[in-house]
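Researcher: Batch entry, complex prediction.
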Amino acid sequence: MTYIGTATSRVDGHAKVTGTATYAAEAKTTGLVHGSVVTSSIAKGRIVRIDVSDALRVDRVIDVLTHANRPPMADADSGYKDEVAPDGSPFRPLYDDRILFSGQPIALVVAEDPETAQFAASLVRVEYAEEPHVTEMYRRWDDAPALKAVAKPGENPFSPPKPRGNAKAALAAAAVRHQGDYYVPVEYHNPMELYGSTVTYESDGTLTVFDKTQGVQNVQCYLCGVFALAPERVQVLSPFTGGAFGSGLRPQYQVVLAALAALALKRSVRVVLTRQQMYGLGYRPAMIQRIELGAKGDGTLEAMTHDAITMTSQYEHFYRQETGWSGLLYQCPNATYAHRVAPLDLPTPCDMRAPSAATGVYALECAMDELAVALGLDPLELRQRCYSDRDQNTNRPYSSKNLHECYRQGAEAFGWEKRSPEPRSMRDGSELVGWGMATGVWEALQVPIAVRIALTANGHAEVSCATSDIGTGTYTIMAQVAADMLGVPLDQVTIRLGDSTLPQSPVEGGSWIAASVANGIATTSDAIRDELLGLAKQMPNSPLSDIAPGEVVLVDGKLMSARDPARAVSIADTMRHGGIDRIELEKTTRFPKDETHSHNTHSAIFAEVKVDEELGVIRVTRVVSTVAAGRILNTKTASSQILGGVVWGIGMALHEETLLDHTFGRVMNANIAEYHVPVNADIHDIDVIFVDEPDDSINRLGIKGLGEIGIVGVAAAVANAVYHATGKRVRDLPITLDKLLA
Amino acid sequence: MINFRYTRATDVGDAVRQIAAEPKAKFIAGGTNILDLMKYEVEQPTQLIDISHLPLRIIEEVPSGGLRIGALVPNSDLAYHPLIEARYPILSSAILAGASQQLRNMASTGGNLMQRTRCFYFYDTVTPCNKREPGSGCSAIEGINRINAILGTSEACIATHPSDMCVALAALEATVHVIGPSGERAIPFADFHRLPGGTPEIDTNLAPDEIIMAVELPPQGFASHYSYLKIRDRLSYAFALVSAAAALELDGGRIAEARLALGGVAHKPWRRVEAEAALRGEVPDRAAFAKAADILLRGSCGFAHNGFKIGLAHRVIERTLMQAAHGTPQIQAIKKIR
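Model: Structure tokens for the complex:
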């Protein structure tokens, strides 16, 4: 293969850095008007009155849409269910007078220009009947309902796993025990691109919607549901996305408001949220986790309990499987899992980079570090002693698991053997030095997907699929795979994605798109090859006359015997002889359900921190992230993915925290000056290593995907390093310096 | 953003005339703070008077031996000016500890003095805030107050002044030259910013119809023994939890003259001459520094989330004085604390 596995630069890189890549809020259309959103200032209650008269008096204001004057919208929950909606009653923007959370959209001011719309929005006066709200998870600790554990594997991937053995008795009998409560605050995605939608109202009443989303077909289907539109009346486009990280899996409210205004006014409308308004969207739910571990004196685990409490809104029941990750990593005969979900007067949480693993594994891997301390064992050694070759939640082996090699190569690259075990025993001048490590794990998922390929006689391929490139490099890996499968140069491949009229794709999330779309391209390429071979066999004296399709590959513009390169005909000649100038085929790829294996990616993260002993200032000076994720399609974009995950993990450990004022039920640091993420000064050396992990059984190309795995375990590695440096265990993220000084 | 009128002042006199004529007008120079505040509708000026082009961009030596810095000198130009770097490196250092290069390129000297607090409640127009809306109450006292003040607070307000540059200017005992309808006057830096008291809406003693012309530095620059140390929640681009400017004049192993000011702890750069007096004549050691810290922090009082600032400030003061005494000032580009 020429391109797969290489460090290919992004095929869309030039367009992005030169500004020619068009994002949702930049889409060009004529006669555009602009909407500005008014949001609620209370967390719960009813709108008694909205006075829009002052806003309407402003010159160039066209209309103000509220629940009182909006056009018809669906009245049943089913109209608002999107592809990844949790159970419950989805939020309906401008539907009625109910306020469900602070920052809820309650009016859209539409004007000829965005500045006028914003100004007029400031003139909308709202009177509320306020009701008592609760936004603090601790206040719902006691009445948070528990989730039922799964009865059989695969039943509900988000429910806690089935218990094993007798954890209570085994804990009581364990030689060494550790128990700890770990806390992760509400975190926001903060993609660089603001949420925005441009809806073009076509003369025939159809809508062309440019949206910031991770799933154009999801948005298209959703809008049809909300506004009872025939599918052919709505096209959703999202050629480029400036980061989303899970926040764009579900349709966001600005696309509803833009479509609503377009339908009401029969005009093209753009709505862009402000940064502050983006703190009224979904978020990573805060989480309290209690982990109890019991081990034999030799470090093998005997028992584990993992309890979690997370939060959801009052209208939807959002949760992910937080507690079961230990079953994938560590051999442990006795285990129980419990998960309770507290409904609060906040928006529904949503998936955010490695949902549940970033948080669940943080707690688990800190707890393992604490157990290692209690046992007097090296933390890496403990993990190796507990290493599990089977997924204990399902009692299946893995399709591949080269975590051992992650541990080995990571430790070697980091120099782990030089670690002095005692906390506070390593120094660099006035700084304490700490080395910590953790394990990461994520799922290797794949989903049904359709790919269309048009190959022309002059050697150009157009590959189409309705998936998204949310900045991960999907355009590039699709082009690489297509070029290799079709035997054409990379620059002869055109990728079309982010268009709801293209062949079916689910939302881009869960790290499943790379594996799905790459194998989808391979499937469709095979069909193209077969068709070409049929034509080639009809050619006089065809060198391929008696060859089976499986023995033919497309290389360098030729159909060629895989065994004997001398037996080949050019694709151009084949098409010419067949009297065609192009072959266009669409195939759906479905991945057979493998009930015999678990499919996961793994990582080992090693982190060095230096902490000013007197002032508690933490610097993460080195991180080595070693990843086992099957075949790596593009070492350059894959490394970038992992680097980004590590940076985010450092932020999770040290910086990120949504500050909710529970009196007002509002986010108080709703901007990226005060919601801290790492800046350049916080980031030093990060080394990414991919270990070999051939996997013949997971899918044809052996691909696992790696969008999420990069962040998993990083916060724990940093937290464990901080403990090793200072002797102080901080279990509440973020580890700010006041917690070290306390 | 609320609609406003935009005008350009033709000269300083015109700027004063314009602001005197319209009480709800505001000056704009770099705009690094006022524009944000207007977007959040915290500031709702009826008129913006653009002064960015006025000829107040000169740094010049004055007969007393000091330096006069024009009010419109950008923070970057000031930080990297050879005379500042050579004679007042503590000012360079404090400026470079703040914001980002891009913001420092835009921000002006006078504007830095006039920047407003970063208290979360001041920025959120939905919540009560006495500084934004006098008489509405202080939400921070019972709310999220991790970034708020521990010194000089009042029942009406616990906001801090966010500037780094001003902490150094306070330590250097700069003078602020202003002009208004009744002429020019000089305000000692210690008197420029106010404590909140019962009128937290008034940040400074600059009259509403006055404009800053220049900031004057006295001859003594403490170029040999100084440091500016800023502690924050990430290693750059965050406001100070606590910062300290320390400047010493050493003579025969003892402290001849000392200056000490704190940022991030009060409604103004926090100085007490008694703390500095206690250092004079002492051997520069930890005991002397701890005593000065005790005096400077006397009466400090934390709230639910910011009590840690008291202990932190104590340590920061000691460390900064140590850096100053050893002639090893904190270098802002290097995040390891010396």
